[in-house]
Amino acid sequence: MTREERMRALRVLLYFLIFALMVAVVGCATKPAATGKDAAPSTIQASAAGLAPSGDEQFKTISFAISIGNPEAVKAWTIKIGTEKSVVKTVSGNASNVPSTMTWDGKNDAGAMAPEDSYTAMLAIDYGGAFNAAQAASKSFILDITPPTGAFSPNPALFPYSAEGVKGPVAVNVSAKPALAKVASWSIDIFGPDGKPIKTLSAAWPTSQAGWDGKTDSGGSIAVGATYPATLTIKDEFGNAGTFKGSFAISSMPAANESRIAAARRGFSPTSVIVKNTLDILTTVGSKDSVTSWKIEIASATKGTVKTFSGGSSDVPASVSWDGKDDSGAVAADGSYYATLSLDYGKAFMPAVVKSEPFSVVTTPPSGSVTIDPPMVTLADLGPKNPVQFTVQATSGSAQIVRWTLSILDPKGTSVAIFQANWPNNKVTWDGTTVEGSSLIPGAKYTAAAKVQDEYGNVGTVSGTLAAGGLPAATEPTSLTASAGGFAPTGDRAHATIDFALSVGNADKVSGWKLDIVGPNSIVSKSLSGTGAKVPSTVSWNGKGDDGKMAAEGMYSAVLTVNYGLTYAPAKAESKSFLLDLTPPTGSIGLSTKLFSPDGDGVNDTETISLDASSKLAPIAGWSIEIFDPDMLPFASFTGDWPYSPVVWDGKGSNGNLVESAADYAVVAKIRDQFGNVGEAKAVIPTDILVIKEGDGYRIRVSSIVFKPYSADFEEIPKERAVRNITTLDLLAAKLSHFPDYKIRLVGHAVMINWDDKAKGAAEQAAILIPLSEARAEAIKAALVKRDVTADRLVTVGVGAEDPIVPDSDYANRWKNRRVDFFLVK
Q1: Is 685 exposed, middle or buried (0-12, 13-18, 19+ CB in 10 A)?
Q2: Which of 62, 136, 309, 686 sits a CA distance of 20 to 30 A from 711?
């Protein structure tokens, strides 16, 4: 027995004696006198040597096995858990709940964690006089709260490096210091640079050393030149654990020989077509034979890496050529760039990264202006003794300017003088003489345009303006007058062209003239011109442009320019605006009836024709309405000025004839605008069956029932006429229902072929035409009976060619004589 264990046993004994004395005193004061008879022995036994509420699961609580002698005689019982100094937990009961076990979680009667110490459980039993009071005590046990402390250290402190990798193993020494409970075990968890566990070392105490060969639990190897964090965990006998941080360091690789990278020039322009538009990136690679891979990156501070070159051990470059484009193929933005060279030597040497000095990408050309002194010259004064001076002023943000070329351009853009020089010489004078030896044009403006080149081949254009002195104005006025406010080339030809009257001042000095027809958006559609002093007094325009096509409609004006050479300044005159009108008016016709019936019965006897119209550009000037009979021959017409007043038509044509029954009359309205564009609107007036009063009866006007030649068939004829026949019969049947008190007399007619031979004609009338006309009347009678007209109201007769509508000699129209007339009789 160790000294510590002996001291612990003495403390338990002393505590038991004190507890027994307390029980005895209490018993003497509160209980009846003992009988002197002892009960069977009682015991209380702890399940473990201690508990650790924050330790392993099996030691978070401690259990006690309780055995009570003569439990049937128990009156009261008490269990107290405490140290030498105080009781922290008391549990009591009576005969109804005598315990056989009890568990303690380390908390005192107040629910708080009891202090860490050595504890004993005391059992006291009161038998109420049946037996003497009894006591029992457990062996002492520990309430363990404080975990052990410790540390670890690798030996040697660094894993040594070799070309083959990490040498090992290293010895790992662990030191541990217990708190109240004994140290039981330790473990070291080692983590990779990414924070994931790679290796665990562990042992039971008192083993305090382990070795690590640098291999991970998955079979891999640790990397050289890296540090691996580790956590030491020390557990005591009850599972309380303390953790402590540390690390394992691995020796770095040796460095390779020095490497360098540099740009061959301090800048370039990828878009230049004058000087070299690529940049060579030069490299010096140390320990070149050991390189396993390489990478060159072109980057800027703002854009990051824009271009990457890379390769392996077989193609380590002495230089690469950059064309100024990024990895996507786009030209890199202007700015400052640098190059980095990255070298990987595998396990032979540490990776190396070197960086170049900055270099520039410049695609922006120089900018500036040309200063001209004086900016306006008098042609009489300009010469060698009084030249004009040009100063080229230019700047470039990232490149040096090297040279420039200055061109003097006339108003047409033709170069009339050229100068050039190297920078910084930026001035030149000019006496005004052109390359052809001529002088400047009076009143013209010239452009001084300089192409300025920088060192990388970027070329910018800077410019200024030189004005030549003007000429005096002509002494006589020039004017231009349009003949009308507009015209319509596609109209009724009344205004097909427009004329312009030209009046030119100082005509004997004219060197040339030009007339421009200017339309919408100030676009010149047509130009007419001439040279010499003979200027026409009148010019006509038909609306077509210089391309021969009709110009767009809209508002136009004419501009006349007269040139006088060097005598006077050019004179201009402009006409008033005029309209090119191409779009005719549009409109629609409205009719007052659905079925026109001008037979005097007071129902739909007149047709009111309304006209609604509009015009896109020119105002409407007038209108006309033409009505056509079923054969599309003119029948009636009306005209008037705008605005339109409705036409009320009585159904009579221009010759006084009334419309035919059951026929369609086409109505065509023409709307004319101010300049003669004509638009059309169309409608159809259908007529009803017309019933005309004649004496005591009525005559029904029906001329649209047409028969097949030499036949009573009115259906096997051209489709259009057959349909009209059927429609006419339908209308006729409906009309007859309005006259129930009248009989209907049907008179058939026919066409005579022998109209020019009286004898043959008479024979044809008797033998052929009378029977044919009777058959036609009977055919119509049968058709009306089918349409519910009572047969006994219908009387038929045939008159042959006796009563023609048109002469039988009219071959074009005599078909109209193949008909049946209708009469209403009492």
Answers
A1: buried
A2: 686
**pLDDT tens digits, one per residue of 296-325:** 999 998 989 999 999 999 999 999 999 999
3-state helix, strand, coil in the chain (%, to 5): 10, 45, 45
Distance CA 659, CA 661 (A): 7
Which domains, and CATH codes, for the chain? 3-143 (2.60.40.10), 149-250 (2.60.40.2550), 260-361 (2.60.40.4070), 367-468 (2.60.40.10), 479-580 (2.60.40.4070), 586-686 (2.60.40.2550), 690-825 (3.30.1330.60)
Closest by CA position to 137, among listed 38, 245, 15, 31: 15
Distance CA 757, CA 640 (A): 51
Cross-strand pairs, 611: 589
Cα–Cα distance between 570 and 564 in angstroms, integer?
6
Is-contact 526 545, C-beta < 8 A?
yes
Which candidate, 596, 560, 587, 806, places its Cα nearest to that of 703? 806
| Residue 513 · residue 530 · CB < 8 Å | yes
State the pLDDT at residue 165: 62
Tell me: the pLDDT tens digits for 507-537? 998 989 999 999 998 999 999 999 988 899 9
* Nearest residue to 552 (alpha-carbon basis) of 514, 526, 516, 588: 526
Q: Which residue has the tokens 């991970």?
A: 216
1 DSSP 8-state letter? -
Please, what is the end-to-end C-alpha distance for the chain in angstroms? 161
Task: Please say if the pLDDT value at position 2 is more than 70.
Answer: no
**Residue 597: pLDDT band with limits 50, 70, 90:** confident
d(CA 643, CA 20): 136
- The one-letter amino acid code at 525 reads S
Peptide bond into 366 cis (omega under 30): no
CA–CA separation, 120 and 44 (whole Å): 10
Confirm if 283 and 225 have CB atoms less than 8 A apart: no
Q: Are strands 690-694 and 678-686 parallel, antiparallel or unpaired?
A: unpaired
The Cα–Cα gap between 338 and 304 comes to 10
* Cα angle: 743, vertex 748, 754; to 5 degrees: 160
DSSP character at residue 7: H
- Tokens linked to 163: 């070309």
The gap from C-alpha 410 to its chain's centroid, in whole angstroms, comes to 47
Cα dihedral 82, 84, 85, 91 in deg (nearest 10): 20
Q: Report the SS3 class of residue 641.
A: strand
Name residue, tokens 């037979």: 599
- Residue type at position 593: T
Cα 23 to Cα 20, 29, 116, distances in angstroms = 5, 10, 26
- Separation between Cα atoms, residue 380 and residue 471, nearest integer Å: 12
CA dist 119 and 49 (Å) reads: 10
Reference 341, options 312, 308, 374, 370; nearest CA is 308
Task: Give the least confident one: 7-11, 84-88, 127-131, 666-670.
Answer: 7-11
Share of the chain above pLDDT 70, in %: 94
Which residue has 């039981």 as its token pair?
184
Query: Which stretches does DSSP call E strand in 396-537?
Result: 401-409, 415-422, 427-430, 445-454, 459-468, 479-482, 486-487, 498-503, 512-518, 524-531
d(CA 463, CA 277): 26
For 400-429, the pLDDT digits (tens) are 999 999 999 999 999 999 999 999 999 999
CA–CA dist 249, 233 (Å, integer) = 19
Residues in the chain, overall count = 826
Task: Give the type of residue at 449.
Answer: A
Place of tokens 């990255």: 342
Report how far residue 324's alpha carbon sits from residue 473's, in angstroms, rounded to the nearest whole number.
Answer: 58
| Long-range own/partner contacts, residues 91-100 (CB < 8 A, 24 or more apart) | 98/68, 98/71, 98/74, 99/66, 100/65, 100/66, 100/67
